[in-house]
Amino acid sequence: MRLEARPAQVYVGLYDRLPHPGLGAVQEFVFDIGITATRPVVLTDVVWRVYDQTDHVALVRQRLGQAAMHELTLGQYGVAPGMGLIIPRCYFLEQGAIPLSHVRVSAAGYDYETQAAVTATLEIPLVYHQQRARLRLPMASGAWWAITGNDWSSMHKADPVSWAFAYDFVKLGPDGQSYTGRGLRNEDHYSFGQAVLAPAGGKIVFVRDDMPDQPPGQPPDGAQLAGEAARVAGNVVVIGHGYGEFSYLAHLQAGSVQVKVGDMVRKGQPVAAVGNSGHSPGPHLHYHFQDGPNLFVDRGLPVLFSDFLAVGDRVKQATIPSRMIVSPAPATR
Ligand SMILES: [Zn+2]
Fold this sequence. Notes:
This protein is mostly beta strands and 333 residues long. It has one helix spanning 222-225; strands at 2-6, 10-11, 13-15, 26-36, 41-52, 57-58, 61-62, 71-79, 85-95, 100-111, 117-127, 143-148, 167-172, 195-197, 202-208, 235-242, 245-252, 264-265, 270-273, 285-290, 300-301, 305-310, 313-318, 325-328.
């Protein structure tokens, strides 16, 4: 029996700098476990233990589970050669900033034919990314609602590993709403057509600009996504900032992409406009930061943004949690 983790090393999002004082530090991480066997095995239990850097077990919580409960009792679950088992989205949350070291996963069962006990263990290193790029918000002005931010409630935790710390921003109008009327047309949405700016300087490493904008609430047809799963992100611009840090801007407006692969961009330079291309519920800007240029392959990094306005304050550098309303600080233009 063999255990594998995806990714093999897991980034921890440590949110110790939040815009509003008093929220306290929180950290979280997510990964998938794969279990395979070369002989038929009956798996009975899987146990996770999270260790801190002094090798103590840290009592962290799983997203929907109880405190300090990290066991999965499978009863009798067969794993045969050529037919593995995946335990997707193993998610952990810790209130506080104790530096964590690794997760030890242990699986136990028995050989189906010989009845002999079978066990396997895997140590998954937990790593903290030291962000080099100073990222501004990728929007020009106005109030933007982070419908998805860096915290436990992000829907993107269920997506590929590069999206674990992704943001979704929606612009709010003077009425505090994200669209006028019934919002059935893209043009009814305040976000649609708004400039998308380079969050930091760098080189354009990937562009897709051949996808149409979808009407709000309507997923793209299969033909648009055929052959390449990454087309769910619609039109995209990917910027390499150096030091293995990449910005991924997605669901961009059809015909709005102003850059091509190889171009150098400066911080704050317009690169496209907010759209509704790919698999998107309505016009919004999807932004994530990853450790390589490839969606579905490289790992998502937690994000610190610099110089923005939130809760009436000007914030120097912080993580933006879900549902916070933020604006770019005027002088960062
Ligand atoms: Zn998104």
